[in-house]
Amino acid sequence: MVYLFHFELPVNEATWTCFATAYRPYLKCLTLSEVDALAVSVMHLSRAYDHVHHEATTDDTGVAVHIGSAGETADGGDDVIDKVTRPAGPITTFLSFFYVNTKKAEITMPSGKRDLPSIEDNHDGTVSLKYGPKEEGLHELFVKYNGENVQGSPFKFHVDSITSGHITAYGPGLTHGVSGEPSDFTIYTKGAGAGGLSLAVEGPSKAEISCHDNKDGTISVTYLPTAPGEYRISVKFGDKHIKGSPYNSKVTGEGRKRNQISVGSCSEVSLPGKVLDKDFRLLNASIQAPSGLEEPCFLKRLPNGNLGISFTPREIGQHVVSVKKMGQHIVNSPFKITVGEREVGDAKKVKVTGNGLKEGKTQVENLFTVDTRSAGYGGLSLSIEGPSKAEIQCKDNEDGTLNISYRPTEPGYYIVNLKFADHHVDGSPFTVKVTGEGSNCQREKIERKREAVPLTEVGSNCKLTFKMPGVLPYDLSATVTSPGSITEDAEINEIEDGLYAVHFVPKELGVHTVSVRYNEVHIPGSPFQFTVGPLNDGGAHRVHAGGSGLERGEQGQPCEFNVWTREAGPGSLAISVEGPSKAEIDFKDRKDGSCYVSYVVNEPGEYRIGIKFNDQHIPDSPYKLFMSPAMGDAHKLEIAQFPTSGVQADYPAQFMVRKNGAVGQLDAKVVSPSGTEDDCFIQSIDQDMYSVRFMPRDNGVHNIHVKFNGVHIPGSPYRLKVGKGDADPAAVHATGSGLGDVKTGHKTDFIVDTCNAGAGTLAVTIDGPSKVSMDCTEVEEGYKVRYTPLVPGEYYISLKYNSYHIVGSPFKVVCTGEDLAERGPQETSSVVVETVHKVSKSHKGGSGVVLPHFKSNASLVTSKGMGLKKAYIGKQNLFSISAGDAGNNILFVGIYGPKGPCEEIFIKHMKQNNYQVSYIVRERGEYILLVKWGDDHIPGSPFKIEA
């Protein structure tokens, strides 16, 4: 659209400020920066012209401002904006025309050039786009409304330049699709003559192809991809590719729900000889196959007290088992074990029967049976992906057979992946067509482009914002830990009602840890990663979200949460809400790498919140929550005497609930840090007061759910710290080769350093194209996690401490090498460890204080002064040290003489790492002067001095 602006304004900057503020909503075609730029133009023109035009009317009460489309009169139509109150002072008006192009539709051609289609208003709420292509190949059509892409934009289409008589292909299935849903395209064959037409679809999964001859010179082709990824579509005529073939189609998993279970079936072997090591938790074991493949394996205490191992046999022959304690082999390790042919897991020998892998019905159990009796030892993993997250039930008959059932809630195509010993069984993945009534699930989605946030530098003012309605500012606290492990308090201020900002000034480049606590408990999303300088890596795994709207909600009331995308770089953020009713979603971009989302639903029930960045789910997405009915009388209830400190594990705690006249049923439960739930004991004290009593079993943050008539009362669930509560995810760090680039078939590891992080629950999860053998054992500085990937690809390692991601989690690991197992959809492997309190080795028995990891270079320290060359007995001998360019560290000065150390050394810091040193010697002779910056000598040290 082309807009015409007609202004009559006084020469007064306050008038424009008033106009720009009051009428920005009317100028939807402009960005805020364009409106501000327009303001500058108006002011320059108003100063340039001092004559008065009378084309528009003004009176003594104000100034007329008109806006209309090109071709209209400036003072006509319904688009006249109300008058702006006239400021005091003389009026100088002018008439000027501004033409502002707002691109509602744009096409990116294969060459990268941009072109504009024509837009026609159909006057019925729709518009038509017409475009004459200038190039052949893949085009992208961007359609925007109010500056935002409409749903589905950008749309992709192919343009061909071949004339009649040649075979061409067109349709959406050549460029994009959704896993588990049919993708379509059309082949035009009119006038092509005789010849054989062949089709092939290659990609991450097999894809069933069906063709239909339309008898009009066209053929309709449908293929069904069963996994997301890139697919290669080949269309050949007479053994030659047609123009444009092979086509690349990007298939996403959008809208797909996945569920999976794993059933262990490992071989258990007793280690040769008597192995009775009492310190079982300090042992770890790995097994090496004849081919050299080495994997961690699990140690077990057998009934006779001897040690045994549990592992999945993959090869025939002699295996070597290494059992180590704190890195050293135990007695008789390594052990040798022979694996026979019948013990090796063979997926081809697994038998699957039942109609549930051919067709299914919604809302009922669909059954099939798996028989592994002839297949050896191996773990069975099952995943079902489709329009709904089907519940899976598995009954182990303990005779080598399993009865499996799944219950989908939505009709459509489902993909069933069934693997044994990390290989697909025959026929897997199975495509199952499920029919029946759906749950009438409603889905609403918004998508927003996220721009890269400007880099922050050392010394700049850094800001991290979050919204937490209903909290008191003085209950919030924040700290920032630098890459050198220096922790300092940070300032928090309230920008507006419920919106807070953490301010700090970094002194180093690198990843900083920002911890934000409410009543001494980390808020959702904390600890945050904040990179000063260039970002190391970006993507969906660097996006985090948190807030009450991802945990609970109430029908008809706004449910709110924060999304932080700063560390992910630029990209597309998509947010979907799915459940019994459609959601109204509101999105506010704070322009600092964070945004705020609010949504309202009108029906209670179970909802799923999906958050994707560049078509990939962010960590912990999708979120599952229950939307409670309207609060009703629940809002009348109050909590009294709620314990805020001093609560201990295995000791009862209680609080009071005042009903304030509400009529109904009160219930309460406590959820421990590990996720286990326990009911609270509720006793009526009088007609209006209840006592709620509970017994926490673990240390850590518990959630107390208090409901009235099935609805959370205000503030529920309440967070309560039990025990010392010293488990701090912000103090946990992970390092090691297992977090970098790895190779298939090679055992790798990383260390999770929990020194001074307190005792807590460490949960390690590895998501990737295959399951991994993994174990976690205690070491001096924390815990060592070992794993062996079997399939190349991207793995994501999540490390949570007391249910909070540590900084950097999830870590993205790229694995290269050959396929040692069959690739499938994302597989998950996990291990959970209850940690013990640890302090760093260098401070055992001390105060537990940990020195920062200083980043410095002693070679850049300079020194000067007579005191470095000659000393005078009984007098102050001076020299100076300048370490301004050497980074941060501690200055050490020592002098040793003929009869021991010198009598006095005085060091004075003169700011900015400049020091003045003076010393006094009492004896004649030769002295040695040592000057160190941290652990390293400065240039010239040690100095030789004559006194």
UniProtKB/TrEMBL annotation:
It is found in: Cytoplasm, Cytoskeleton. Its main location: cytoplasm. InterPro entries: Filamin, Filamin/ABP280_repeat-like, Filamin/ABP280_rpt, Ig-like_fold, Ig_E-set. SUPFAM superfamilies: E set domains (SSF81296). One of its GO terms (cellular component) is cytoskeleton. Keywords: Actin-binding, Cytoplasm, Cytoskeleton, Repeat. Filamin repeats lie at residues 104-159, 159-251, 250-339, 342-434, 432-532, 535-627, 629-722, 724-815, 853-947. It comes from the Eukaryota. Gene3D superfamilies: Immunoglobulins. Signal peptide: none annotated. One of its GO terms (biological process) is actin cytoskeleton organization. GO terms for molecular function: actin filament binding. Pfam families: Filamin. The keyword Secreted does not apply. PROSITE patterns: FILAMIN_REPEAT. Belongs to the filamin family. This is Filamin-A isoform X3. It comes from Sipha flava. The lineage of its organism: Eukaryota, Metazoa, Ecdysozoa, Arthropoda, Hexapoda.
